Amino acid sequence: MAIKEKTPPDEQQLEGGAAPEQAAETAETAPVKEKKKHRAAPPPRVKKALDPLVTKAKQKPQTAVLGQFLYDVGFWAEYTVLRAGRRLRSFGALVRGKACAVGQFIKDTVGKSLLNAWRELSAPFVRLRNGFKNIFALVREEKKTVGTAKAVGEGLAYFGRGVRRYAPLIRPSFAYVLPVLALGLFVYVVNTVLGYNYVLAVEVNGKVVGHVQSEQVFDAATAELTQRIDALGDEDREFTITPTYSLDVSDTLMDEAQMANVLLQESSDEIQEATAIYIDGELLAVTTEGEALHEFIDSLKAPYEDPNNPNLRVEFTKDVELQDGNLYFTDSITDLQSIIDVLTGEEQGEVTYTVQQGDVPSSVASKFGLSVSQLQAQNPQQDILTSFYVGDVLTISQAMPYLEVKRVVTRTVQEEIPYDTVTTDSADLPFDTYKIEQEGETGLDEVVYEDTYYGDSNTPETVEISRTTLKEPVTRVRLRGTKLANGMVVSGTNGTWVWPVPNYKGISRWMSSTHKGVDIRANYGASIIASDGGVVTTAGWHYSYGNYVIINHGGGRQTLYAHASSLAVHVGQAVSQGQVIAYVGSTGISTGNHCHFEMFENGVRISAKKYFAGM
């Protein structure tokens, strides 16, 4: 059975006007063209076996119901697919129609407008091109019959007629040509103007003295010129220049020094070219013996230089700069020897000194050739006679070289990095015994240092410049035993107790009417542990107990540990059972190294033998 298309039963009719049942019936009776499919018939033996089953199935009423159900499922599935496809085709057609309409609108409006504008703009040029084509064609034809001269004459005559005919178009053509020419001129002007180097022309007393990039350059030049005058003792010399600026084009610019020289030339005729020496940026002096000054400066460093040592730098303690070729007032020039005297002389300077262990005011003062009163006068911020502590920083005023040479040596060394040790408790090892689980390995650093030597001193100031790790250290892991021997952990009234000195040697005496606790003998420094967890209520010194600790365990229970060599806890600290709280010693009233141990329950002292009878 082949069904072309169906609609649901609740619709009035199909497209052909028939009801669903009629459509189905019509579809059953209508001839359907199908391709013949050749199916192989089942083997006789199989057919013989299946026929009884088929006949039996047809006799059962359930077979008809199942067939109708399968038919309905197939019918509605086919109908749903067909209807969905039809709606998708309708939606696609609608979208295509809208898109075509929009495209046609753009073509009819924008496209036509642009095309018309282009035709209008290009029409004169098209006519001009066609005119020239006609002239050339006319000349070629006439040349064949009347010769070249007459042909050219005919062409010119044709051109003249064209000019007269299209003369009215000349003026409108300017509406096209002039904007193009104006645009080209604008681009040229902008490109040319932007390519100019616009600077400020400096005018002094009506004369352009030079060009600078900005007003700041001129201000820096006047400041430098003022420094030249003031630094050389010419404070009384009048120097007032009021410049004017104008925008100009120039490729030659002056810096501050050049502008200062020009200003100096404009202000006085008594000027001279000289060499200036600046110390830490301040002008010290000016001399005409510049070459000799250069040689002297070099001679100060020469004894310390070693061209074969690339790691050596020879410098001055101050920044020294020599400037040649600048102009200065003639009466400001200093002779070379005066400059040398200043450079090799002394000045008052300050050094700092940090008080070391064992220092006293008199010893520190004598190191610097001072009296204690002079040292006090230079450090008024503190009373060195009553307040003089290690780490205090003192200021010492003393004469020092004005200009000193320093040698800076860069050295690279490799240094070992010590490894850390981590201790982990292990219940498998006897108490206070140790086992190395992982050996530690030292690491390696590459360190760059700078050693600075001042003058002829051989004692450097060393500064670390950089540090690079070449190999990371490996941590050493150590296991510490926490396992207690049999009998060292016992049950008490409110929990358990542990024996306070696991590595003990024996019992000197137990608690008695004349002795308040048990004395546990052990080696000096053996660990004393908390018999139970709790809070430290006492940790300190007692004339009889020596170093001792009391722990409150709660529930009316307390323990006391005495005669320790040192303590490992403090008051208020919470401790856990088995934690080290002190170390065996013989402090206070004691004979021999031991731990005096007392136990309390409900405020009553009890004998440790009650719980640790087997020890």
From TrEMBL:
<dbReference type="InterPro" id="IPR011098">
    <property type="entry name" value="G5_dom"/>
</dbReference>
<feature type="transmembrane region" description="Helical">
    <location>
        <begin position="174"/>
        <end position="199"/>
    </location>
</feature>
<feature type="compositionally biased region" description="Low complexity">
    <location>
        <begin position="14"/>
        <end position="30"/>
    </location>
</feature>
<dbReference type="InterPro" id="IPR036779">
    <property type="entry name" value="LysM_dom_sf"/>
</dbReference>
<feature type="domain" description="G5">
    <location>
        <begin position="402"/>
        <end position="484"/>
    </location>
</feature>
<dbReference type="Pfam" id="PF07501">
    <property type="entry name" value="G5"/>
</dbReference>
<dbReference type="GO" id="GO:0004222">
    <property type="term" value="F:metalloendopeptidase activity"/>
</dbReference>
<dbReference type="InterPro" id="IPR016047">
    <property type="entry name" value="M23ase_b-sheet_dom"/>
</dbReference>
<keyword id="KW-0472">Membrane</keyword>
<keyword id="KW-0732">Signal</keyword>
<keyword id="KW-1133">Transmembrane helix</keyword>
<dbReference type="Pfam" id="PF01476">
    <property type="entry name" value="LysM"/>
</dbReference>
<feature type="domain" description="LysM">
    <location>
        <begin position="351"/>
        <end position="396"/>
    </location>
</feature>
<dbReference type="InterPro" id="IPR050570">
    <property type="entry name" value="Cell_wall_metabolism_enzyme"/>
</dbReference>
<dbReference type="Pfam" id="PF01551">
    <property type="entry name" value="Peptidase_M23"/>
</dbReference>
<keyword id="KW-0812">Transmembrane</keyword>
<protein>
    <submittedName>
        <fullName>Peptidoglycan DD-metalloendopeptidase family protein</fullName>
    </submittedName>
</protein>
<dbReference type="InterPro" id="IPR018392">
    <property type="entry name" value="LysM"/>
</dbReference>
<dbReference type="InterPro" id="IPR011055">
    <property type="entry name" value="Dup_hybrid_motif"/>
</dbReference>
<feature type="region of interest" description="Disordered">
    <location>
        <begin position="1"/>
        <end position="54"/>
    </location>
</feature>
